[in-house]
Amino acid sequence: MKSNIERYRQESKKKRKFENSPSASLGSESEKKQLVDAMEDMISPVEPEDVKIEFPKNQFAQNAEKMLSEILSYEGAKGYLSSHEGLSENIQTDILEWILKSQRKLEKENPFVDEAVFINQQKKLSAEEIAIDLSAESSKIKYHYKCLPSVSDSKRGNIAQSNLDFDFYAKAFSEQKVVKKAENGKEKISWKSAEELETLRRNFISDMEKELVERKNKWEQQQIDEMRKVFLEELYKKIDNFIRLEKLLSPFIKNLGRLWDLSETTFETSGFEVLEQFAKLLEQDESLQELAELLGKQSRAQSTFEKELHDKTVIKTEWHPKPAYRGEVNSLRYSNDISAVLPSELALLKNPAAKKLFQLKFAQKQLLSFLYQNMNATSKEETEQEEVSVEKKEPKGPIIICVDTSGSMNGTPENVAKTVTFALSKIAIEEERKCYMISFSTGIESLDLSDFKNGNSLPKLVQFLRMSFNGGTDANPALRHAVEMLQKDGYKNADVLMISDFVMGTLSNDLVKSIESEKANGTDFYSLVIGSSGNNGTIECFNHNWLYDTNDSKATRHLVEQLHELKTRKA
After folding, report:
1. Does the N terminus or the C terminus of the chain have fewer Cβ atoms within 10 A?
2. pTM of the model
3. Each residue of 505-514: pLDDT tens digit?
4. Cα 61 to chain centroid, rounded
C-alpha cells in the first residue's frame, strides 16, 4: 500500500508540475487543470458518464485529446487502461510530459523570432515613418520590407514567405504623400489625411501579424504532428512491452509504474526475450513447475495440529407465560376483573351488610380472582465455544539455490538448470519468499533475488540466463556459503537446492559435518541430479535427491513421480 501511495504521489507530482507550468501557450492555470481532468475522465468516465469534461480549446489541449483518442482505440487499450490504474496514470503523465517537451522544442526552434521582433519595431513607428520607409524609391528599403518579415532562408525549409501584399501598401502610402518644393529648393513632404494614414498603419501592422500567426500555427502544427507520430510509435511499443512484461514479470515487480519504466530501458536491450524463452520452457515442463512449488517449508505437506476455540450457534426453546382470557388456572390473584372473581367474593353482593365491603375491594382491586394463562414457546440463539483440532501448516520458507555453471553442464543440463532457477525465483517472489542464488564452477557468484522489488536484480538474472557455462567444478565453496547464509536471520530454516550433474569431487569432511548439523536443525538439502554420472558420495549428503536423466525420454515423468512421492510423505 505504501509503495502504491508513493507511486501515485509521484504521478500526481508530475501532473501538478504540468498545471504549474508558467508557459502561456499551454493555456491558463484553470485550463491546464481542466486538461488533466478531461484526460482522466476520458479514460475512466465519472458519473454521470454521459456528461463529459471538455478539453480546453488551445492547440496543445486539442492535440492531447486527439492523441488520447488514438491510444484508446489501439487494440482494445481502453478496457486495459480502465483495469490498470497504474498504467493509465503513466500514460497520462507521459502525454503531459510530451506536451511540455514539445512546447519547449517549438519555442527553441521557432524560426519566426526575427519576424516577430520586426513587427514589434513597426508598432513603435509612427504612420509617417512607416509611410516614408515603405514608399521610398530605394530598392534597398523595399527589400528590407519584403524580406525581413519572412523567415530567413537558412531557417525557412518548407515555410513559405509572407503573402502580405507589400506593393499594395507601398502604393497606398505613396498616394497619401504630397511633395512640395520649398523656397530653398528642397522637397517638403506633407500628407493628404492623417486619419487615412493612421488607418493604413493599423491595417498594415494587423495584416503582418495575421500572416505571422497563420504561418507560425501551420508550422507548429506540422512539427506537432511529426512529434506526435514519433511519440505514439514509442508509446505503442511501450504498451506492447508492458503487457508482455506484466504477464511475465509481475511476480518480480509489483509496482506497475516501475514495470512501465523497465519497458523502455532494460528490455529494449533484448533482455526480456531471454526471460520469455525460459518462461515458455517452464510452462511446457510440468516437472520443473512442481519442483518450484515443492521447495520451502510448506512444500512437503508437513502437518501439525493445534487446539483452537471456535464459536458455534445453539438454538434453544424457552416457554414464557402469556396471559389469556381463558386457559389453565395457574393460581389466584387480586384484581377487579368481575369475570374471574371467585364465587365467595361475589357472594358479598347478596348480603346487604357486606355489599359496601365488595364495592371497596372492587375499587382497590382487592377481589380474590382466578389467574388464567397459557405458555408461549420462543426460540433463542446462544453462542457457545468448542475446542477443535485444526491443521496448522508452516509458512513457506526461503530457498537457497546452488547452480553448477561448469563446462560439463553444457547443453540440456544447462537449459534445465536455467529453467529451474527462473521458475524458483519467479514463484518465490510471487509468494513473497526470500530466494538466494549461488552459481559456482571453480569460484562462486551470488545473487539475492529478494531485491527484485527494487528492480535491481532483474538485469543480473538476465545476465545469468544468458551466460555460457564453462570451467571446472568445485561445490565446496557454494555449499559452504549456503551454510553461512543459514546462520542469517532472513535465511534461517531455509531449504537448500543444488542443481548439478554432480561430476565433481567429494565434499570436505568439515563441510559434511556442517551440513549434517543443519539437517539436524530441520534444514532440508535437496539435489537435482542432471544426468547419470554423478558422484554418489556427494549426492548422499543430501536429504532428498531427484534424478533428471537427459538420456531418458521419460525423464520428466519420472521426476514428477519422485516429487509426488515426497509430497505425500508426512514428516
Report:
1. N
2. 0.49
3. 889 999 999 9
4. 25
